[in-house]
Task: inverse folding
């Protein structure tokens, strides 16, 4: 089984990525990077990462979230985060990245924020 | 006092192997779930650093890992065989100018999740990091 499974959904022009597993050094980080690069290549620039089923993130995974955020911004898009677990919230607090990411607890609220 | 040693090849898969060994050792040593998460995090970060930045993914070089348990604490050492570095020269990833950098948060996590973290230049070459998790604060 893959370290990180990513399922893609569309809500209008917003792409929601339901992520399940671990975003860690190696396979998990690469899976996220590959997906984000592909979406940008397809012109999909409004991306919502649903992290509710991500049980584990390490510094490499945090770095990949930051890289994804900057890559999407560079293309004039917006990457936002949904359903952070307590552990991920703690990591973003430690790294002071809660001030960088737009974070939402409900999908409808997150989707509305793009308008 | 219980002790365990592990020698791992310098490939990324060894991070998972180190984490599994740490999880088993910490569980057998009676650490709480929250403490085991902290230990797991610190072991993954320190071993990943040793493999990537110490041994530069050179599989002919190993990473030496030790766990030592006592009534008061768990001590973990991770040694690589690469070039030495000065940890104080690593940029602070929480500085505003570094926030959007992709790398450089491993040391911060190690310090955040463990009670004590120290780096040494090993007498026989390479770097060693020693991390302590206390049972009670």
Result:
């Amino acid at each position: 089984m893959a370290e990180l499974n990513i399922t893609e959904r569309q809500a209008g022009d917003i792409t929601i990525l339901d992520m399940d597993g671990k975003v860690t050094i190696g396979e998990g980080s690469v899976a996220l990077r590959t997906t984000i690069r592909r979406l940008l290549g397809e012109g999909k620039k409004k991306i919502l990462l649903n992290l509710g089923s991500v049980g584990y993130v390490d510094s490499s995974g945090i770095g990949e979230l930051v890289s994804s955020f900057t890559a999407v911004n560079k293309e004039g898009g917006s990457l936002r985060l949904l359903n952070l677990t307590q552990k991920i919230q703690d990591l973003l607090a430690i790294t002071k990245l809660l001030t960088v990411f737009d974070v939402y607890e409900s999908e409808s609220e997150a989707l509305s924020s793009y308008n | 006092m219980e002790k365990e040693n592990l020698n791992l090849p310098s490939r990324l898969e060894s991070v998972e192997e180190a984490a599994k060994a740490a999880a088993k050792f910490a569980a057998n040593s009676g650490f709480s779930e929250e403490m085991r998460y902290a230990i797991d995090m610190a072991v993954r970060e320190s071993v990943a650093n040793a493999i990537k930045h110490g041994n530069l993914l050179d599989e002919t070089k190993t990473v030496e890992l030790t766990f030592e348990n006592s009534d008061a604490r768990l001590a973990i050492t991770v040694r690589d065989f690469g070039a030495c570095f000065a940890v104080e020269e690593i940029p602070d990833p929480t500085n505003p100018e570094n926030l959007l950098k992709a790398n450089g948060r491993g040391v911060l996590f190690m310090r955040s999740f463990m009670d004590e973290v120290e780096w040494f230049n090993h007498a026989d070459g390479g770097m060693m990091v020693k991390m302590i998790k206390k049972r009670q604060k």
About this structure: The first strand of chain B starts at residue 2 and ends at 9. Strands of chain B lie at 2-9, 62-69, 73-79, 116-121, 127-134. Chain B touches chain A at residues 12-13, 15, 37, 41, 44-45, 48, 93-94, 99-103, 105-106, 108-109, 112 (CB under 8 Å). The first helix of chain B runs from residue 13 to 28.
